[in-house]
Amino acid sequence: MPSMSSETAIGAASYDADEFGNDWWLARARDKAHQRAYQAIADAVAEHTTKAKVVIDYACGSGLLLARLAQSLPKTQLIGLDESVGMLDAARAWLGQEVGAEKALQVRLLRTALPDFDLKLPKADAVVFSFPDFRCDLDGKVIKALSKIHPEEWAWSKLASRQIRKQAVQDPDCDDSDDVFDADRLFYERLATRNMRKLVRKGGLLVRVDYALGKRKEWIDAYVGRHDWSLGSWLPDKLTGADRRKARFAEPIKAKYFKSSVIRDVHAQTGSDDCLDGGFIISALKAV
Ligand SMILES: C[S@@+](CC[C@H](N)C(=O)[O-])C[C@H]1O[C@@H](n2cnc3c(N)ncnc32)[C@H](O)[C@@H]1O
Fold first, then answer.
1. Pairing with 78, which of 12, 94, 182, 237 sits 20 to 30 Å away (CA)?
2. Please, are residues 49 and 123 in contact by the beta-carbon 8 Å criterion?
């Protein structure tokens, strides 16, 4: 089992010990709306990878998606990664209940903090990351350590942050003080995709599932930019030459919005009335 390096261990920020962590998630994510969402995600993965040998569920949580994938892709080796011990235990139990002990035991569940670059795994045909709730250290130590390990990514994320914030300032409907445009957030999310890109074969599938307040075409530019930068398919104008080629991880294939009450997960965490209506978006990308 891969171990967590000191640079990426997230300690007190773990899902295991958080108000909006394990217990909170387990109490809400098994309802009908979430179950429909996991089915839609499993269908999207199967649509693009009918003959997949290996599929990785990145930050697999309590195995809700893995159970659907095990049903949709019965011949595929499934691997679930997560940092939380409690979530992985819950995943094993849920898989046993949903697909039977024998099949459940064939799913590899591994503990690792994101983004860990030392994983030795077979190249996947697809890597899925659904409903990310990025947990990082509380005092910036992880970001600091990672920015030393990946100085280029850190510099690029600062460029992206500047351009995206400029777009936000120009848009009267956008709050440019929102910390989602901060370079350190963009950097951390980028590293997650970079990590996913390393786990998947060239030409393979990357799938990200994000909460969304509406259809992508209704998003304002700053949010499209932040989303696509973190997924490696949009690059800031100031990134040029060889860096530009290196920084591009993926090409978009399809993005589909689903209206769903799962958006209330965000309302429950933020208290924002803007998050009472919406749903989720499934973005499928080809790893380049
Ligand atoms: C909202 S849950 C989603 C779980 C699962 N993807 C799903 O759709 O049901 C977020 C998951 O991300 C994991 N996670 C958050 N930050 C992480 C990190 N830095 N490293 C590894 N896992 C992390 C948590 O442990 C949790 O299981």
1. 12
2. no
Atom of ligand 1 nearest to the CA of 61: 27
CA atoms of 231 and 288, how far apart (whole Å): 12
User: What residue type is 156 in one-letter code?
Assistant: W
Q: What are the per-10-residue average pLDDT scores of the chain (288 residues)?
A: 52 79 92 98 93 96 97 96 94 97 96 83 97 78 89 97 94 86 93 94 97 95 95 96 95 97 95 93 97
Gap between the Cα atoms of 150 and 158, Å rounded = 13
Residues with CB under 6 A from ligand 1: 10, 15, 25, 29, 59-61, 64-65, 82-84, 87, 113-114, 130-131, 133-135
Q: How far is the CA of 116 from the centre of ligand 1 (A)?
A: 14
Give, using CA atoms, the residue closest to atom 16 of ligand 1: 135
**What angle is formed at CA 117 by the lines to CA 116 and CA 121, rounded to 5 degrees?**
100
Domains of the chain: 11-287 (3.40.50.150)
